[in-house]
Amino acid sequence: MDVETGAILALQILALCSIAAALLAYLMRQSRNAGDEYELRNKRHVLVTNCDTCVGLQIALALSEAGYKVFAGLPNPLENSPSMKILKAVEQEREKEMDNNDASNDKIQLRTRGQIVPLELDPTREDSLHASLDAVRAKLPAGEDGKRLWAVIHTGGLALPGSIEKQTSSAWESMLRHNLVAPLRTARVFIPLLRVKRGRIVLLGDSETSYASKAGTGLVAFTASRKAVEGAATALKSELHSSGVDVVLLKPPPVNPLVLYASPVLKTVDVESGVTSSEGTWIAPLSNYSVQNSLIPALTTPCPLSSYDMSLKTKLFWR
User: Fold this and answer.
1) How far is 214 from 39, CA to CA, in rounded Å?
2) pLDDT tens per residue across span 110-147
3) Strands in 63-219 per DSSP E
4) Which of 42, 95, 97, 116 is the most buried (most CB within 10 A)?
5) Each residue of 22-33: b (16+ CB within 10 Å) or e?
6) pLDDT at residue 23 above 90?
7) Is a pLDDT exceeding 50 seen at residue 249?
8) In this model, does residue 28 exceed pLDDT 60?
9) Which helix or strand (DSSP H or E) is residue 183 part of?
């Protein structure tokens, strides 16, 4: 090997070593940042206003899995509803994991998932909202800079199908009360607590490709209420800008709203196989990916977008 060839080979090896070192440093930094972010989430408290809906329960579970401490709003937490059965089953499963981890001899420790605290809340009632505000304040830990709530996510909703010609005005008024007036009432009550943390209000709008646009769905009035929420979110974001409280809109995938805002249905017996499902098993309407990859950025990004689309598909390649 001549001197020139040897020098070129040495330079190539040096370049490869430099690239490998830079990649290793990047991965270590990313891992450290991910750990720091998880620890930050674990110190933050979030209120999910209605976990008696499929979308609300799924959001609460996703937040807990990501490390947040969640206040789970329920019409009656003492009732053994499907939502409460699912929450209890999840809590029992986590306790088993912790027990197994403590009993094992390996040094791998499970990340602490966020606690879920059931809370009685009916966002359509002013008295219930104020009572829940007092309950949240009482349960928040007193830190050096006072009690803080990071976010309120309004997941309540009502979808009543029916053609405009035949649907009663009372049905429209009921949907407006649940879908539009309730989140505004919730925001008004919790803004003072969110202002301390410069936190977030998260509202659910309509999907980019509205399910209700399909012929025969009978969801004109429901869609009107959801589009109204989107307009309210834009106006509220501007109004609260100076206070530091941000308003973010989540746009669900084109899933039937009658499923999204219905109570969770527990799986019991598979008719074909005759296999009985484990306690607290249910079929969630959204993919975990769509929830995690829209909700978490909406809560963690220092300057969040005005809206996040929950219809995002899994990416095969990242850069």
Assistant:
1) 44
2) 445 678 999 999 999 999 999 999 999 999 987 644 56
3) 69-74, 116-120, 151-154, 200-204
4) 116
5) eeeeeeeeeeee
6) no
7) yes
8) no
9) helix 182-197
Hunting for tokens 């007036």 — which residue is that? Answer: 181
**Contacts from 302-309 at CB under 8 Å and sequence distance 24+?**
304/200, 304/246, 304/248, 305/248, 306/233, 306/234, 306/237, 306/248, 306/249, 307/205, 307/230, 307/233, 307/248, 307/249, 307/250, 307/251, 308/248, 308/249, 308/250, 308/251, 309/208, 309/251
pLDDT of residue 21: 63
Q: Is 263 helix (H, G, I), strand (E, B) or coil?
A: coil
Q: How confident is the model at residue 36 (pLDDT cuts 50, 70, 90)?
A: very low
- CATH code: domain 42-102+112-309 is 3.40.50.720
pLDDT tens digits, 171-197: 999 999 999 999 999 999 999 999 988
> d(Cα 312, Cα 287) in Å, to the nearest integer?
10
pTM for the whole structure = 0.80
Nearest by Cα to 155 from 267, 246, 262, 284: 262
Q: What are the C-alpha distances in Å from 89 to residues 6, 82, 258, 266, 278? A: 65, 10, 25, 12, 9
d(CA 40, CA 26): 21
Mean pLDDT of 158-174: 94
Cα atoms found within 13 Å of the Cα of residue 57, Cβ hemisphere only: 28
CA dist 56 → 145, 172, 253 (Å): 30, 22, 14
Cα separation, 105 vs 113, in Å, equals: 21
Nearest to 202 by CA among 58, 49, 83: 49
4 vs 305, residue with greater confidence? 305
DSSP letters of 194-245?
A: HHHHT-EEEEE---SS-GGGSTT---HHHHHHHHHHHHHHHHHHHHHGGGT-
